[in-house]
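User: Sequence in, structure out. Go.
Assistant: Echoing your sequence, followed by the C-alpha cells.
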Amino acid sequence: MDDLLACLTRHLHWRRRLNPDPRLPLTAQRARDYLHANLERDIGLEDLAQACGIDRFRLTRAFKAAFGLAPHAYLIQLRLARARRLLAQGQTPTEVAMALGFADQSHLGRWFRRAYQLTPADYRRRCSNLPD
C-alpha cells in the first residue's frame, strides 16, 4: 500500500525522502559510495572530503562511527576483495595491482599477505585451474 501511495504521489513532492539507511549519516554514505565508484583511483582523504562537501576531520569521525573503519582502511578492504575476485578469474598479480590502484605488485602483496596470510600468486594458484 505504501509503495502504491508513493508511486501515485511522487510528482507532488509532499514529503521529504529519508536517507537510504537512516541509521548512517548521509556524509558517510556519500563517502562510501564514492569509494566504491572510484576504488581504482588514488583517493586521498582531502579528495574524498571535497567530494562529500565536508572537512576531512568531520568526514573521518562520521565514517568511523558508521562503518567502524577509517576511509583508507575501508578502501584497502574494497580493493582486496576485488583483488581476490580478479585473481580467482586468472589475472596475474601485476595486472590486478595495476587495475586496482596499488602502487605496484609488491604493494598489493604486502596488503594481501597481511589480510589473508597468502601471497596473491598463491591465492591465484589455489583458486584457478589455469596452468602457470
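User: And one key feature?
Assistant: The two ends are 58 Å apart (CA to CA).
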